[in-house]
Design a protein that fits this description.
With 223 residues, the chain is mostly helical. The protein has helices at residues 2-19, 28-41, 44-68, 80-102, 109-131, 145-156, 166-188, 195-222. Helix 1 (2-19) packs antiparallel against helix 5 (109-131), helix 2 packs antiparallel against helix 3 and helix 6 packs across helix 7 (166-188). The longest helix is centred in the last third of the chain and has 28 residues, at 195-222.
């Protein structure tokens, strides 16, 4: 499910970078670099957009973390609270989609800032949701530098082929696929771009709901 979510992340970042001030909605390290560049160039618009994206992401991550709470060492593999955070993300990205369509995929001024806030809040929520899975399932669907490092480390261990990180590789490929798909949609039907992350969330939430119901049925059967 992390692979599907990462696909949506790639599409959201395409939207934010191409139409929301050339900043990222999920890659905060990249935004910090852009903020430094804005200071060097005395570019107020770039500085504002990076700060807005950063603040939105932090707000989303904080809200999502409050919902998930501290991961339990022996809790379920996919807690119900993680799904709850993703449902909140759906609401946020649905608002983003509405604004995106209203502005004909070319937001400016206050619309641009507002949509950047929503996109960044959504990505912060998603990061918090993945953090709610705990250490047993250490995944990220937004910031992927650590994932890339793990894949490279596995490849470098030539005498231990089993170390190869298949899941990490799939997540990296999903980010690229999501960005490519987002880029294509931007060229053909730009208003439809928000449908990509929403569709990814729908698949994950639907799968998670099925999982939760199966767990409940199993618990009732054991009583």
């Amino acid at each position: 499910m992390a692979v599907v979510l990462t696909f949506g992340t790639g599409a959201v970042d395409v939207a934010s970078f191409t139409r929301l001030g050339e900043v990222f909605s999920s890659v905060m390290t990249g935004n910090l670099v852009l903020f430094g560049l804005a200071i060097a160039r005395a570019s107020a618009p770039l500085a504002v957009h990076t700060l807005v994206a950063f603040a939105g992401y932090v707000a989303g991550a904080a809200a999502g973390s409050r919902i998930t709470g501290s991961p339990r060492p022996h809790g379920p593999l996919w807690p119900l609270r993680v799904t709850a955070v993703l449902l909140v993300e759906v609401v946020v990205l649905a608002g983003f989609a509405g604004g995106w369509v209203v502005t004909d995929a070319r937001p400016g001024g206050a619309w641009q800032v507002g949509l950047l806030v929503l996109a960044s809040v959504g990505m912060g929520l998603q990061s918090a949701a993945m953090g709610g899975l705990g250490r047993r399932t250490k995944l990220s669907t937004t910031y992927l530098t650590g994932t890339l490092t793990g894949v490279v480390a596995g490849l470098a261990a030539g005498d231990r082929p089993k170390v190869f990180d298949v899941r990490g590789t799939a997540i990296l490929l999903a980010a690229a696929a999501g960005a490519a798909s987002g880029g294509i949609v931007m060229l053909v039907v730009p208003w439809a771009l928000p449908l990509l992350p929403l569709a990814a969330l729908a698949v994950v939430i639907g799968t998670a709901t099925f999982h939760h119901r199966a767990v409940r049925r199993s618990s009732r059967a054991q009583k």
